[in-house]
Design a protein that fits this description.
The chain is built from 2 helices and 6 strands, in the order E-H-E-E-E-E-H-E. By secondary structure, it is α+β, with helices and mostly antiparallel strands. It has a single domain, classed as Dimeric alpha+beta barrel (Alpha-Beta Plaits). Strand 3 and strand 4 form a beta hairpin.
Length: 114
Amino acid sequence: MPTYALIFRMDLRPEAMPSPDLLRSYMESWGRWTESIEAEGKLEGGNHFDPTGWVLRSGGRRSEGPHVSGGESVAGYLLVRAADAADALRIASACPILEGEGTSVEVRPAGVPG
């Protein structure tokens, strides 16, 4: 089965963060969702990213903080095995991150030979 990366983007600004109660609810939904992927035998791994970091560019330029585009930054990823792109999109469409504002899930084939 091919591997797909599910890349999670969200607005990481402090003022965009959900309340502690809403965050707890989101995390419970997240846990149920990832457990369902694991129960299908399709979860390969993944991780959340810290909202800090650096961006390195050519010419030795470096900036503090993660790359942000359109107000969104990558917050984490999962690697899943899926029968095909339609199956990967089915898995991604149930992601609880999509319940929030300013969020997205990018689905990309992974491990594709260059």
